[in-house]
Amino acid sequence: MIETREGYAPQSPATLAAYLGGIPRVAALLGGAPSGWNIAEVGDGNLNLVFIVKGPAGGVAVKQALPYVRLVGESWPLPLSRAHYEHMALSEQARLTGRLTPEIYHYDETLALIVMELLEPHIIMRRGMIAGIEYPKFAEDISTFMARTLYFTSDLALTADKKKAMIAAFAGNTALCKITEDLIFTDPYRVAPLNRWTSPQLDAYAAEWRDDGDLKVAVSRLKLKFLSSAEAMLHGDLHTGSIMLTPADTRVIDPEFAFMGPMGFDAGAVIANFLLNYFSQDGHEKEPGGRDGYREWVLATLQQIWVFFRAKFLALWRGDGMGDAYPAALFEDAEGQSRLEQERQAYMDRLWTDTVGFAAAKMTRRILGLAHNIDLEWIEDKDRRALCEARALILSRDMMVNPGNYASVEALAEAARRTRRNVLNY
Amino acid sequence: MIETREGYAPQSPATLAAYLGGIPRVAALLGGAPSGWNIAEVGDGNLNLVFIVKGPAGGVAVKQALPYVRLVGESWPLPLSRAHYEHMALSEQARLTGRLTPEIYHYDETLALIVMELLEPHIIMRRGMIAGIEYPKFAEDISTFMARTLYFTSDLALTADKKKAMIAAFAGNTALCKITEDLIFTDPYRVAPLNRWTSPQLDAYAAEWRDDGDLKVAVSRLKLKFLSSAEAMLHGDLHTGSIMLTPADTRVIDPEFAFMGPMGFDAGAVIANFLLNYFSQDGHEKEPGGRDGYREWVLATLQQIWVFFRAKFLALWRGDGMGDAYPAALFEDAEGQSRLEQERQAYMDRLWTDTVGFAAAKMTRRILGLAHNIDLEWIEDKDRRALCEARALILSRDMMVNPGNYASVEALAEAARRTRRNVLNY
Questions:
Q1: Is residue A2 included in any domain, yes or no?
Q2: The pTM is what?
Q3: Residues B127 and B61 in one domain
Q4: With a cut of 0.90, is the ipTM above it?
Q5: In a domain, B25, yes or no
Q6: CB spacing of B164 vs A174 below 8 angstroms
Q7: 3-state helix, strand, coil in chain B (%, to 5)
Q8: Does one domain contain both B40 and B174?
Q9: What local confidence, expressed as pLDDT, does residue A74 receive?
Q10: Is A167 in Cβ contact with B171 (below 8 Å)?
Q11: Same domain for A163 and A84
């Protein structure tokens, strides 16, 4: 049933102009009179309304939740409360990372509406990567975002009471979490009406994924971790479609899936989307080898993301360590310090193993599940697309079942190269 | 600062008689007039007021939280809200286990007061075990309590939204969780003013425990799991002092430490207290070997507890499996069923490993930390007590650092026998 809420109404350009005109800060940013503002609804996305508003002095972006999934319609209700969680996560991410998120100008809980910085000339990263654009600052920025948002909301940085308060604050975002639980961890491994794949080319893969007991146990273990491990505040949907950037500036948007979950889920999302893009390049290059250089940039950046993230997370832990986990009082002398440092490295190794597993789940779901990536969808030649997808599937299966085969990000990158080289037919 | 709350006042026998007289159900249970009721404050415990009230027709027990730790006084405030969490957990445990908890007759949130069934002629299990009393039904009962309370509040039985609602409902019980975090997982491994141990006999052990990097890392990993793994609703303090019983009837009381945490913590508490009692028997037997038979009953019961628990938990999972974890839809055919069964066994193996670790932490804290067990404290000969304690410490250290050495509960029981046989001096 579609949610109704006293005072809620989906905005149109006309109603939005009047509404924004009543918010002094926003009106000043835009300049001039509301009648002169140019307002366009541009939401190309799956869930929400998105407006771009421009006035003589500047622009803003406005995101409003609808009480259903926009892509599907009123038959798939989705609570307006997701705007509440998105606003809460955005505020926290802004506090922790500064300029790596869009600035929030105004939030209206009743309208489930956020007015925020208009990011120009930023584009969605996924589109840039399909076009073969390099982003030299990205690894630096995203690793900072991940390290700071994950570290500072974990038990390593928070006292237990503050951590539990965050868990309670995000515990209501269940409808969004359920989308992840179903579409990532369940549906691709069973017959589900919303599944789709490049057919008939990948029919045998889809059938095999539904029959593979080891794989289904592995993805179920990951799902259990997603359900029960409240390690840190996650963005929850940290793929390259949730990043707007230029070569000089990176912003992470759309944290409406935020909740307290396992860190490897966010890290895995970034890694997965880089691997999917890597495999997709064969479908985008104009002549064989035309994207060889870009492919290597993708893998080099993927490696930097993890290496930088690991180093930054560890540096924060070494310099702060104010949380209730691994209390400083237990490791004060030189020997204790050295033993704790060894454990920090082991902690990051365990997180890497989680990351590999979650990355694998995110790769599979984009090929056999409901929501696909344009990296692969835009490859018009279905045989070619199927070959790219088969490579990603083959690698992801082994990542999920045998994460120990990928002891380092370098080993993972090399496995991607090897898979591309050796798998020549879907 | 001591909490004050509108309408709250600690009860005395006189005020309590008037109060209970105003609750028709309780007044009827007691019979006669309030002036004829016999009311005694009997709280021998650490935290609360406990009254036993008897009338011509029957009796009730009344437990009221104080805004501080009774044992220590007003210098250690503790929120009244713990009665709220205790009542919530008791209600849930009663729903899930029927007659394995005391019946609740009345709950007063403002007074932080619970009126419940008077358990007669039940005694605290710890006292019975010190006296060498066998409880032939106990393994059956406690394994049912553990299996049903843990299974039905886990992701194996609950949908994610219901599970997250429970997490949020218990998230505020942070003051009680902090007691566990400090006294079990931290203080025994550092110089802390509240620590105490049998001195000077165990001084070297206490020093070694503070210096042992492997041990401090191991206990910190357990603490991290306690902080971040919301696997199921825990009793939170499931030692033999939280059990009242007769040979024919078992009741679990006092779940004020309840929260959503790692299952191994509850299972480990039971195991730990059986091991501590096992090692304490050398201090209670009247002549050498006088408790040989009882010692073997303790170990046989310990083994039954885990074996029965494992079988019952698995049976519930096989017969129910309605939760969001390991969804049935993924394992429908014969091969899937067989693979899922293999994973169920692996799940219980992992839970056993957690249990061994948490049991070890609970053993150490009772010997080197603030709160000791009368099983050991009542041994008057300090040398003898220190020997019993040293054996428990030596075993607990290896359990925590090398849980893989204890692949089964039989192996753990055998290690206890071996430790007792081989460690002849503290």
A1: no
A2: 0.97
A3: no
A4: yes
A5: yes
A6: yes
A7: 55, 10, 30
A8: no
A9: 87
A10: yes
A11: no
